[in-house]
Batch of 4 targets.
Target 1
Amino acid sequence: MIRGRGLEKRYGRKRVLDGIDIAVPRGGFAVVTGPNGSGKTTLLRLVAGLATPTRGDLLVDVDRSRLGYVGHDALVYRELTALENLDLFGRLYRVPERRERIGMLLERFSLWEARNERVSTFSRGMTQRLALSRTLLHDPDLLVLDEPYSALDEAGVALLDRELGELTGDRTVLVSTHDPARLEPLASVRLALA
């Protein structure tokens, strides 16, 4: 599903990625690791179609509407409620039976009680759980997750572990992390950036 050869990304004179190769089969679970500044986020942005490589070839064999992305920014509207956010994204993605799907995700991610509160009142962990709900709402074929454990409490971490475990083999997943041991049992592809 993802094939990149000799990927390079520059911002002006600064080289962020230099000759990176990546291959993730459909249904594969790829874990990208490396220190801060190694290009993990840049690589995930390339795969998500949010940036283009300066050099190299990249093929992501999925319709963009079938991609789910979690980045450093939650990509939700802070002035809307959790329910309003998911309803908006559900309409944009034309999610069938969206009200039922939204209710299920809000319940699963422990946000049901806060569904009518504005996101601006949420903790960082609650906002991250809402971002994960947004990402899974349209049941994407490819998940691109940049440090998805960021700001999650123990319950949120356990929830994400369970969700990723259930998706393994059924969806293609590309995830960056500073804690590769946590995802090692799920990983079919490993890429360490320097």
Target 2
Amino acid sequence: MTDLRKKYGILYLSIALFLICAAAAAVMAFTALMTEKPIRERQKALVEENLKQVLPPFDAVEEKSVSDGVLFLAKKDGKPAGKAVRTSVMNGYGGRIEALIGFDLENRVRRIVVISHNETPGIGSRVMERKAVRRLWDVLRGKKAEEGLPPNEALDSYEGKDASKITEANVHFISGATISSHAMLDLVRHAADILKEGGK
């Protein structure tokens, strides 16, 4: 009798476990299905927002997939306005760094927005992040925050330079964040290679 109870107990337990897992899988699948479109739309809006920050004014963008990235070709009134490259490198101090880099029509860097990184806060992050700084006096006076990208001495040092000719000597490296600074230089050089590939 005891063996029979054990046998059926295991069977009932297995069926119950199967039903719980099936219900959990169904709920997760439904959630993924319902959130897929809003997530995709949010990501698209974020890319468009970042493109506005790194490119000159435009009214249309063509997206072109290339190896290791995406090339964006912006147009204004049907004429080329600028280019942007979204790509990543894996040699940051914290691993992968992904950025969107805007270029003018002569392949000079316009602006850089780092999309994601894992660099050390307060050290390597100084190379990657743009943080708006507001002084207490400005807040008390009611001065509005400046529009556009907040400054970053490392990222801003690339602006106006020919992407294919950038070297350590003509951009700003942050002291104590040499690996992060080198990774950013590699990222811009990689974006320059993508520009060449996309122009073929």
Target 3
Amino acid sequence: MLPSIEALTRIVREAAREELLGRFSGVQRETKADGSLVTAADLAMQRRMREALAQRWSEIKFLGEEMSTQEHAVLLNEAAQHDLWCLDPLDGTTNFAAGVPYFAVSLALLREGKSEIGLVYDPVRDECFSARRGAGAQLNGRPLGARMPSASTLAHAVAGIDFKRLPGPLAARLAAEPPYASQRNFGASSLDWCWLADRRFHIYLHGGQRLWDYAAGSLILTEAGGDSVTLRGEPVFTLDVGPRSVIAAHDATLLDEWSRWIAKHMR
């Protein structure tokens, strides 16, 4: 039996309200070895979630972003044989530390090397995006809807673009000659996947996400009818914590047009 979405939502919502929103107005931060930020909220949320999940499902192993590289390697080496939680306790730490209200908790259950359950919770808006493989995607318990109409062509699309991690020539071409109608960059990858799934924008491009950034969100997008590949045309999901590029769209037709434009301007 898989854990229920309802039970997981209750756990994540309660923890995020207490551990994240309770610290949002007074952030204590440090810089990790890779130059990224970590706050007391990241660490407290990871501790809280690990304990809460173990109380209910002690047989499922746990991988959190703030664990060591060595722990990540051991857990992923065994992931094909054991169910595994994959948690980003605070996706959008830079936003959180700066007082920007765009951050989320991302939780996925991996089974046999695939995401079986994905849940992304935005505590500021009290929006919980969720999906179970083969059962569709939801927002706060109702089928995931569409904020905007589908984009019929790339020229009509609203894009989510993270310029920082893109190859220089591609970023320069996008800045000088964008093929889409408009562009956004919000700063929390797991939530970006969900906003794409809900068609708050139509296409997406990111140069380097980690497993905990996409494990839940990519499943939610897929279950909402969207699709994604890397810049090399490979599946985004892999049991590795190394960075993966992302090209995504709310449907396969638009992804094909978007991917072909990128391939043409990567040369």
Target 4
Amino acid sequence: MLKVLVVDDEPPARTRMIQLLAECAVIQPLETVGQVGDGVAALEAVERLKPDVVLLDIMMPGMNGLEVARHLAARPEPPAVVFVTAFDEHAVQAFEVQAFDYLLKPVRQERLAAALARISRLQPNEPRLEEVARKLGDARTHLTVSERGRMILVPVEEIVYLRAELKYVTIRTAEREHLTEESLTSLEEEFGNRFVRIHRNALVARPAIQGFERVRGAPDEEGDSGEGHWEVLLRGVDERLAISRRQWPAVKAATKPNG
């Protein structure tokens, strides 16, 4: 039996979807396990209810459906996602090319039943709609981390820096640190407008940069000072991060008032 979660910011749309699911239940064994009205609540509900299917509205305030799907994709066993969309004809064609499921508002019972039937036949290794979300979505507003078996959302605007260490990347906010297995390179590609690379293993949020300070190098055996390096001063944390000589010109240019 499929367990279904309904996500839509409009209460009448959720009510209508639940009615359609009741009609589909006559021919397709399913259970509506919950309904929520925003993206963050959707992620919390998935964590709590463990649905097999999420009927996910795309156009929602705050975290939209595309970002929700990307966070769900990070789960070890993500639910199948069916987007509910009022996208125009060209965007719908983009879904059709990928042969993934979507529901075009106003949703028809026959179309919903067909989507659920296809999901019931999904194989474990079959690509799912989250890949389309990744291709069509903009940069996320949150990063997903797993701690003690719980999924935690870290707002990107609160991140001071990202630093690669061994197989993990440390996410540093003013309050604490988190770890993610996402690569620093992929994070730079997605959030390059907000972060600047200061070292091969570190990205710093531009709004968190308070200034720079030149640090003299350690003296050599003859007492002569070494070449030294620049460090970045950060708002919200006491740490200073070294800027590599290779990155210093780019960092200086990227943080100019008109840069």
